[in-house]
Each structure stands twice: as structure tokens, then as C-alpha cells.
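Person: I keep going back and forth on a fold encoding question. Show me how you would write down a chain together with its backbone fold. Please set it down just below, with no commentary around it:
Helper:
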Amino acid sequence: MLRCKAHSGQARQSPLDDGENNSVLFNEYMSEEGARMEDQRSKQDRLREAGTLNRTPERVEDPTFVSGDFFDPRDLLQVRYEMVRLVRTERATLAQAAERFGVSRPTCFRIVRSFERGGLQELIPAKRGPRGPHKITSEMLRFVEGHRERHGRVGARRLVQMIEAEFGVRLHPRGLEKAIGRGKKKFREPGP
């Protein structure tokens, strides 16, 4: 049995001595630890949703990210900002910064240049994937326009079937609607 001395000098029993209290303390600790793990998991999910999750946090070797709770190597914005700060204020070379933050020299150069050009917002990574309708060609849009001129308004569901038969490309009706809408904006005459 563990004994603790109280301020009065008397020995008293520690809460860890009691099996029941010990399990209560253990459960409290585990629930706090579980909450911390949940916070970490939800932070990672939030970073992923925002597109700012560093896919290679294990490559970050900068001392500020290795030790400490504030700097998180999974947070791509934080990593990029600290890399730029190292180059700009501490006068590290691009090669040194690239090595410490786990990127190539060209990537480091591009990120530093982007920051100089546009500030913090330039450190946010561009969304991955296609930037527009990569299947829908201008020829397909002309086909749709010509068909509508001859036959009147035709819905996107029918049009995607016709495009598949004519061009051999499967499209989603909503994607076609968006492309048609963009095409109308593009060809609209400027107003007064």
C-alpha cells in the first residue's frame, strides 16, 4: 500500500491504493487519451477534406516538427510556410530547406516563388484532378447545338444517349448540362 504524507505530516492513503479508485483513474485517463486520439484523427480528416494533408509527413525532418506539439508535419500549409520562412528569414539555401522539409529543390523553389508572388494563399495546394470537362469536346457541343436548332429543346438525358451513339463517349447528364451552360456564357455577347 502506498502512503503519501499530507501537509500536516500525517501519512494518508493514496487514491492509487484503492482498487476501485485506481480503475476510475485509469478509465478517466483512457477516456482523455481516447479524446486526444479522436482529435488527431478528426484533424487528419479535416486536413484531407481541405486538401492540405501532407501525404509524406515522415519526410519532414525539420527540428520544429520533430519535437513539439504545435507543429504538425501532416499539415501541409504549416510545413510549406515554415519552409518559406526558413529560406526567407534564416537565409537557408533551397537545397537545405528542401532536405529538411522532405521535398525536391524544384518544389521548394516553386513554393517560395509562389509565396513571394501571392502570399499565404499561394501555399494552398491546387485541387487535384481534371480542371474541366475532359470528355466533352467542342465538336460534341456543336453537335448538341445543331440538334437543338433542328429539333428544339432536348433534355440532357436524351442528349447523352445521342452523344454516346454518335461519338462513342459516355457522359453524365449533369456534366453535359454544366458544359452547355459554360458554353452559353462563353458565347454571350457583352451587354451595355
In short: The mean pLDDT is 81. The first strand starts at residue 3 and ends at 5.
